[in-house]
Amino acid sequence: MATDTLKSRPGASGGLRRLLLDNGALTALVVLVIAMSALSGDFLTADNLLNVGVQAAVTAILAFGVTFVIVSAGIDLSVGSVAALSATVLAWSATEAGVPVALAVVLAVVTGVGCGLVNGFLVSYGKLPPFIATLAMLSVGRGLSLVISQGSPIAFPDSVSHLGDTLGGWLPVPVLVMVVMGLITALVLGRTYIGRSMYAIGGNEEAARLSGLRVKRQKLVIYALSGLFAAAAGIVLAARLSSAQPQAAQGYELDAIAAVVIGGASLAGGTGKASGTLIGALILAVLRNGLNLLSVSAFWQQVVIGVVIALAVLLDTVRRKAGATPVAAGTAQGGKGRQAATYVLAAVVAVAVVGATSLLHGQDSTGKERKIGLSLSTLNNPFFVQIRAGAEQEAEKRGVDLTVTDAQNDASQQANQLQNFTSEGLGAIVVNPVDSDAAGPSVRSANKADIPVIAVDRGVGKADTAALVASDNVEGGRLGARALAEKLGGKGTIVILQGQAGTSASRERGAGFAEGLRAYPGIEVVAKQPADFDRTKGLDVMTNLLQAHPDIDGVFAENDEMALGAIKALGTKAGRSVQVVGFDGTPDGLKAVEAGTLYASVAQVPKELGRIAVDNALRAADGKRVEELVKVPVKVVTKENVAGFGG
């Protein structure tokens, strides 16, 4: 694809056709940039293009490391978990353990390299398939990250957090780190003994061994390099979010592999270059950025990205059948000159066409004050789906263009979405944070751009919000404690299912419940475990807790989804020998209350939250005064009053 150095077979087409076929990924990137510029007047701005670079940085750095592995015919599925583990080690060492920051950075890098060495040892000496070895490290790395952090985000040292800032107020540091790591990758692949060994091993491992290469030792180095780059990516990501997230970079290993393959590398090994990997990462970033700007549904975005990956590989197949044969880096005569000329030509074409299309959007700046963005933590939860419904109804009523994005419980993805909203110059932003502190840096960027931000359901840490629209979670926790304790007659043993670590909703509901429970000394909490506001996790966690505490009398879940999972685990005990109290008053939760399996739900009115959030966003955009805290009352709904609850 784009970045393989190519030799043409006799009879191959010349001219433009050959240029396009031999540089498939580069062609795709140019076409994407032109298309996005034509479709959205907000795409071709300096701020947004820098956003694309920042959003590509972490994926690109991970992918550079994965390039080494794929060139040598291996695979590394652990880089996302290793990135999270390395960042967690740094943050924990510098804060909890009191280690000097410089030493903490070294420990983080050593952690990444160590994980890579373990992968290499398992593959080389343990004879495990790379898929299995790195899949195991994926689980181990994520588990250790959760163990060290106890499931909660850890604040990042300020001196390292500057990696997420900008130089001179405009040039993002993550982009600089990405460029440096890309140059190192190109140098290693094209100018070093280990780089040539990678191509030899990927081309024919047995031939490489017979020619005198110490393949096992080389693989140790290759996987160690992948771990090193993963550690660097984790540090950059945590610096962007100002916190080490134990669940950060989930799924990033697939993006990294996709970037390498889109960039022209073969999963069979033997081909691949740093420049191609960078182009692959930029394609993914441009796609996500542009689709956000075009208000494409987050669900459809996944479909589009999957199709693009498939088309990229298909184009590579077409190119090879058309007579272009990839050659390992540095082996083609005159290849570098032709490649440089190709990149310059691509840049000139892109600038010329983009400049022309930008004239189509000369008037797009008018009316942006009536356009707002809503970033939700997830749409895989009925509660947030109802918030979206209420927001969309209010926006339609007021004649407002509302763009809704789904962060899929990924704090870094939400940071990207908020940055896109900021560069788009919206009149206001409504955010329901995945993690309250991790949303802070992106909200501060909106603050600098004078865009008012409204937080809904969960607050934002270390940033200014015009208003927080939320249910009274503390009072709801108190009401939940009172309802459960009175149902149990003031005595018994209970367990608590906690929500997403780091969210204000989980903290406040838990604090309110603990406060309310003080009035009932006969109630003993025998276990607390996070289930991340998720029904499936609620089922699994409750199943596990029942093994240790089979005779509990009650369960308090910080949302209805976890409560419904707990009910499934309890089976016939739910509503009979074990009383369960949830939170939110979702439709499924209220059905369970009506059926008697869920004793009570501390009901919110999520549609009202969405409606009020949009109303406050418009008021703030118009410069009108809004209340800093808008509390929406909650109510305990039981079987006795569920029929009269209007939601």
TrEMBL record:
Residue span(s) of domain Periplasmic binding protein: 372-624
Major location (coarse): membrane
Membrane-spanning intervals of the chain: 20-40, 52-70, 101-123, 130-149, 169-189, 220-239, 259-286, 293-315, 340-361
Gene3D superfamilies: 3.40.50.2300
Topology within the bilayer: Multi-pass membrane protein
Superkingdom of origin organism: Bacteria
Subcellular location as annotated: Cell membrane
Keywords: Cell membrane, Membrane, Signal, Transmembrane, Transmembrane helix
Pfam families: BPD_transp_2, Peripla_BP_4
Record GO cellular component, one term: plasma membrane
GO molecular function, one term: transmembrane transporter activity
InterPro entries: ABC_transp_permease (IPR001851), Peripla_BP_I (IPR028082), SBP_2_dom (IPR025997)
Similarity-based family: Belongs to the bacterial solute-binding protein 2 family.
Protein name in UniProt: D-ribose-binding periplasmic protein
Source species of the chain: Streptomyces leeuwenhoekii
Gene responsible for this protein: sle_44960
